[in-house]
Amino acid sequence: MSTVEGHAGCLIFGKLGGKDIVAMKGRFHYYEGYHMQEVTFPIRVMYEVGIETLFVSNASGGMNPDFKIGDLMIITDHINFFPEHPLHGPNFPTGPRFPDMHEAYDHQLIEIADGIAKEKGIRVRHGVYTGVQGPTFETPAEYRMYRILGGDAVGMSTVPEVIVARHSGIKVFGISVITDLGGFDTPVEVSHEEVQDAANKAQPLMTEIMREMIKRS
């Protein structure tokens, strides 16, 4: 079970937009002490019950100077800084030993999301998500390093689940809520409560995009 405030750690089965869905109310995080196989086990379950598309969301720190707190960043790619790889060990028969990751986040789904955001007047950004183990928030120097390496936002989740989903042939759409900013001239202190507050305010817009995507997919 998830030990993080705001993460209930359970699966919800239901329908949305006329489609059968499985939703995770919270997720497992590597920093909680779980192994990667445990963190990504829900994705294995989703594959077995027939899920074909995975929608992932997260709260993340923005490093791109064009970002503002509360922005929605559609993930176009990621950089994996986790010390343990979710496919380490014997290969699962859901995919090849060396899965291709050139399109970790489905281009067609991104185009659909962009169209919906434009129709509804919702501000969205595109960017690269950097996945790190946590649980500390980043130092100013770390923020700057990840930015130099090509990241636009940084967080403590998502990447392991996306890797396993792609290994299983599941298409992925990802979106980050920019809940804090870092790596700029003036360091800003951040707390988990502030991150939750910013995420809660942006959630209705993110939900609107995803709900409409499910209807149209």
TrEMBL record:
Coiled-coil zones: none
Source species taxonomy: Bacteria, Pseudomonadati, Bacteroidota, Bacteroidia, Bacteroidales
Associated pathway: Purine metabolism; purine nucleoside salvage
GO CC terms: cytoplasm
EC nos: 2.4.2.1
Keywords, in A-Z order: Glycosyltransferase, Transferase
Pfam families: PNP_UDP_1
UniProt-recorded name of the protein: purine-nucleoside phosphorylase
Domain Nucleoside phosphorylase: 5-215
GO biological process: nucleoside metabolic process
GO molecular function, one term: purine-nucleoside phosphorylase activity
Record-linked Gene3D superfamilies: Nucleoside phosphorylase domain
Quaternary structure and partners: Homotrimer.
Organism this protein belongs to: Prevotella corporis
InterPro entries (alphabetical): Nucleoside_phosphorylase_d, Nucleoside_phosphorylase_sf, Pur_Nuc_Pase_Ino/Guo-sp, Purine_phosphorylase, Purine_phosphorylase-2_CS
